Amino acid sequence: MTQPTIAQTASAETEISRSRFVATAHRVEGLDELAELVRAARREHPDARHVCSAAVTGPHGEASRSNDDGEPAGTAGAPILSAIAHRGLTDVAVLVVRWFGGVKLGTGGLVRAYGGIASAALDAAGVLERVPATELLGRVPVEDAQRLEHALRSAGHHPVVDYGADGATLALTVDDTDLGDARALLARLGVPHEALGGRMRERPSGA
């Protein structure tokens, strides 16, 4: 199964020994997006000392990258990456911007600071599970579309209706575990349909 990802962009902020840390978690589709996110953060915060980062991508989190951006090796990018991996997330990038306050935190202090603020941003972003799904497409007369849409919504589905000159298309995406029930419902409603598998549906964790 594809690993979960975050639900939304989110940030968290803390101050430790006069150093300010701001972390932001982003959805990404590939590691190549990380560099542009870092450039954007530098443009937004030109007075910051460090913009440290990490990202994990791929269906099973198989690709990753991190950068300490001038902090001692392993004290910034690695703990940010660990915060992502600990939650089993993928297609996520986390940037931590630091304004140095004049007090050195030491190796252990940096690891705790970067890992802690990255974790706070990820917690604020929430989690979306990704489950195997199938899209069901049915063609119906325009005059029947509204009634059928209502029936599907009453059964807990969220169909999308596309009206055309020669009919309407009902489309709904269902978890593969619910596929049998959904197809049986369409059959009872008299909706001929085709099933397009290999889809992925995102839903809030635990939903």
TrEMBL record:
<dbReference type="InterPro" id="IPR020568">
    <property type="entry name" value="Ribosomal_Su5_D2-typ_SF"/>
</dbReference>
<dbReference type="InterPro" id="IPR023582">
    <property type="entry name" value="Impact"/>
</dbReference>
<protein>
    <recommendedName>
        <fullName>Impact N-terminal domain-containing protein</fullName>
    </recommendedName>
</protein>
<feature type="region of interest" description="Disordered">
    <location>
        <begin position="53"/>
        <end position="74"/>
    </location>
</feature>
<dbReference type="InterPro" id="IPR036956">
    <property type="entry name" value="Impact_N_sf"/>
</dbReference>
<dbReference type="InterPro" id="IPR001498">
    <property type="entry name" value="Impact_N"/>
</dbReference>
<dbReference type="InterPro" id="IPR020569">
    <property type="entry name" value="UPF0029_Impact_CS"/>
</dbReference>
<comment type="similarity">
    <text>Belongs to the IMPACT family.</text>
</comment>
<feature type="domain" description="Impact N-terminal">
    <location>
        <begin position="18"/>
        <end position="122"/>
    </location>
</feature>
<dbReference type="Pfam" id="PF01205">
    <property type="entry name" value="Impact_N"/>
</dbReference>
